[in-house]
Structure formats: structure tokens, C-alpha cells
Design brief:
Blueprint (H helix, E strand, L loop, with lengths): L6 E3 L8 E4 L6 E4 L13 E5 L6 E6 L16 E3 L6 E2 L2 E3 L3 E6 L5 E5 L6 H12 L4 E8 L5 E7 L11 E5 L7 H13 L5 H9 L2 E4 L4 H6 L24 H13 L3 E8 L6 E2 L6 H17 L20 H9 L2 E8 L15 H19 L2
Parallel strand pairs: 3-5, 13-14, 13-15, 15-17
Antiparallel strand pairs: 1-4, 2-3, 4-10, 5-9, 6-7, 6-10, 8-9, 11-12, 12-14, 16-17
Amino acid sequence: MAPVSAFIDSNFHGGAITVVSTDDVRALELRLRPDNASEFAQWFYFRVHAPRGVEQVLHIRGVETAAFPKGWPDYRACVSADGEDWRRTETSFDGSTLTIRHTPTTDVTAYAYFAPYSAEDTQRLIGRAARDPRVSVDILGMSLENAPIHRLVVKDPTNKGGRPPLWLVSRQHPGETMSGFFLEGFLGRLLDPTDSAARALLAAVDVHIVPDINPDGSRRGNLRTNFAGANLNREWDRATPEYAPEVLAVRTALEATGASQLLDLHGDEALPYVHFIPADMPAPLLERRAKFEGALLVASSDFQTEHSSTLGGPNNPRLLSHWATRNLDCLALTLEQPFKDNALRPDPIYGWSPARARRLGVDMISACYVDLVK
């Protein structure tokens, strides 16, 4: 069978891959591209231009040295013909090579570690929310590459003040794109004037949302770091303007307002479950956490408490949630969503997906309501 050549493109927002050979679509040779200023590598996002109807076999070599090698077993890559509908495709891991197989129905096919969430998606999220008169948008600071760190503030006239706000922070690790879809669901319900829980929540607390704290890393297609190579979720007790100004900007705002509750939104490469990471906290906050998790178990069929990651340690002040617990005396939780499927409710077509992340955001309103209102 004669070779069929291809062209592979990753020169766009969030794109990342190293191309070794495109001589034959049945044996494309690739390698992961690390973050621009660090050795973290796991995220990939690229487009293959080749004739439709011919099976594409992609070999990504050397993945055993990725940031999270336990993320490859049972993982299935995401594929899309239109950039909107992202489905899982046949994927195998032999200990050093990730092999992806897909027969496209169009001449351009996108592959990604998870469904991407671009700067345009973030701006649409902000723009949709800003149409609501209860929402204001400001800029907390600038990234190293001079991109704005936006904050949405949702303030209802029925809230007369007196309690610190609920905070949500997204994309400390820019490759964890599921947090953007989560915010779509969360904000959609929060701003629904017919939703009684959302109305009661906004009557009790303002809500502050940072949709992308790491815009440089997001644009560059990094997995975990900003332009300087800083893992922002290891900088909360030591951030400097030269290395992590993004953290400084948000930390300053947090210290100014305080927080009643804080949700730090992440993705877990290895563990196929939705969960909160363990954390040491005073007994009253542990009681609130148990109540919060109980409410989320009722609201969401995707959430569970049996399995959780211990990455970062239960009391590391460099992590946002642990720093906030210690310095703001609030219920601060790190939410992890899977890059793989959710083992609780496997979906052979989509796996863990943008739609399920949105649904989790919708359901999270119920847990916030129970903790902060009920």
C-alpha cells in the first residue's frame, strides 16, 4: 500500500506537539512537547491534514518520561472533526509509546489530550456573563507576557454584605481545560434568575471568579506552568513579580476581600474519578467539608469520596487551597476532574467530557448552597 503523507499543525492557541515524521498517515511519528520553560510534558493538541477515509495511526514516542506516566494506562485520546464535538478514539500504551488510531471523516482532524479551552472560549464565557447586570469584570493584574488576569464579580442587590465572597480560581495548570467547561455550567446556573438555590446563594455571598489565572501557559499549550516555568499552584506562599505575578495579583485580591469558601479547579491525569484532594484543616472546617461533600454526593452522580489524589501533600502552604485555609480561615477545596473517563460512570464514546464538566459545575451550586446558605 502506497504511503499517504500528512501535514501536522500545532501553531495555534494551546497547540503542542513535536513532529518527527509525517511520511505516512498509517505511521505518524510524534513526541510530546514540554512546557516552554520547564520539563513538564503531557498535554498535546494538534491537527492532522490528510485525506479522509484513510486510517491514521499516530505513535507518540517516549511518553514514559511524561509528567504523569500513570496517566497513560486506560487513557483514550480526544478527537474532533469540527473542534466542538470531542470524542474518544482507540488508544493504547505499551510502556513507552502512546498509539492513537482513528479513521477520519474529514480532511482535517484535531487530536488533544482533553478538549481544548481557548482564549476565545474564555472571552465568550466572560462576555456572556457580563451581559447580566449583576456581573462586573475587572483586571487583577498582568501576566509575564502582558495578558490580563480577569475577575468576574457576581453581586446581587439582595446581598447586603457582611460575609466574604465565594471564590473560584481556574487554570493554574493551563492544560487542565476541563475547568473552563465547569465554569460554563457553574455560571449558567448561578445567573439563572429562575433557580432558587442560585438566588439564595447570591443573596448570601458575592461570587468572585478568575476564569484563567495562567493565560500565558494556556496560549502556549503548557501543561502546568506559566511563561517563566512557574507551577503557579506551588507559589502561593512565595510568589515574586519576576516568577509568578499571576499568583501575586490574585493573592492580593483574596487578601483584600477574604473568602467564605474557595474552589480551586484542576484536572487529574492519573485518577479516573472526580474528587477533592485531602487537606488538613481545623475541626469546624472539617465539619463544613463533610457537609459540603455530602451535598455534592446527593447532587452529582459523578462525584465520590472513596478515591483521591495526595499530590502536593495535605498541608502544603504553596498550594492555593492550603494557603487559603491557613491564611483566610475559609473552606478551601481543590477539585480534581479526570482526563480519563470517570470510572464511576464510564462513557465509551465521550469519556469524561466538556458536557459532564459543565454538569458538574451546575451541580456544584447545590453544594455551595448547602454550605453557605442552608
